[in-house]
Specification:
This protein has about 130 residues and is of the alpha+beta class. The protein has two domains: about 60 residues, no CATH class; about 60 residues, no CATH class. Strands 1-2-3 form a three-stranded antiparallel sheet. The longest helix is centred in the last third of the chain and has 15 residues. It is globular and about 50 Å long.
Amino acid sequence: MLSQALRSHLERCIGKLTLMRVLTLVIVFILQYGSHTKKRPDNLVLGRMYDHQVYDLIEVGIENFKSLRAFSYDKKFAPHEGTKPFICFIGEGFENVSELKHLKEVLTDLFRGEVKCLILMTYFCS
């Protein structure tokens, strides 16, 4: 469940409705919340929902953010809306350390996107 401090902070930001009430009004499976305070600058909270309840949360700090526009691409290989990213978790920590293993699971769920039954191979068959 949510810690009391995080719950009260989120409830202040969304107004009089409680956080759980808002989550029952919308259909969400992944919860993302960004904040910036003096105590925790550039903070990002990621969470998963199940049956309109918060399943788990993970809190990370952002230190060196770069947007997609900051990178230069060949026009043919530039990312397009709807494409899935390639994610690679390197190191034994993602298999052995429980916090990193949990982060890996949450990030994989976040970037999973829509399940596709058909994959167009136009870029591979040239």
